[in-house]
Amino acid sequence: MALKYSFSLVPYMLLLSSLFAAGVATITHGELLSSMIGVQGLIYCKQGSKLTPIQGAVARVTCETADEYGYEGEDVTVLSQATDAKGYFLATLSPSEVKDYQKVRIKECRAFVELSPADTCSFPTEINRGISGAILQKYRLLENKIKMKLFTVGPFVFSPEETDHDKSIPNGY
Q1: Which UniProt keywords apply (predicted)?
Q2: Which of 60, 98, 128, 146 has its CA 20 to 30 A from that of 169?
């Protein structure tokens, strides 16, 4: 099954070029949704010792929330755009996409490897917490036209076959 995606690399190149001027910061509770959130990374296929970028792969970002009183709320989940020919992905979440975002506090966000279009390399691995979820901790603040907190995760890896270690960790935990 081949999935076909196309998107322009120009916005991603602009984001990456602005990283050099941005500092790195750490999340403190409650401040995450004050601007757009971006999560970037790479997705590869690992066959033996060889890593090959996967085009058309998808990552998932899931954030736990709490309401204004501190009670657990609905998780917020977004999928990345399909990876480009170099395996690069970007997932974005803006405050307006979160129901009642003025009253919601993000507790923790994790990025997961989600989907590979490659029939020969479709098993997610735990490399860089691809199955259990890489916690978003440090970001770079991009202040070009759009103010964005950009997190980098991974790289995430798929393999041609499922390993015993990867079977033991359920997706999403």
Answers
A1: Signal
A2: 98
Q: Which residue carries 């999928």 as its tokens?
A: 79
The neighbour count for residue 154, using CB atoms within 10 Å, is 21
Q: Output the CATH code of domain 27-162.
A: 2.60.40
Which amino acid is present at 77?
Answer: T
Q: What is the pTM assigned to this prediction?
A: 0.73
Three-state DSSP class for 20?
A: helix
**pLDDT tens column, 131-157:** 999 999 889 998 877 788 999 999 999
- The domain spans of the chain are 27-162
Terminal Cα distance for the chain, rounded = 27
- Residue 62: how many other CB atoms lie within 10 Å: 15
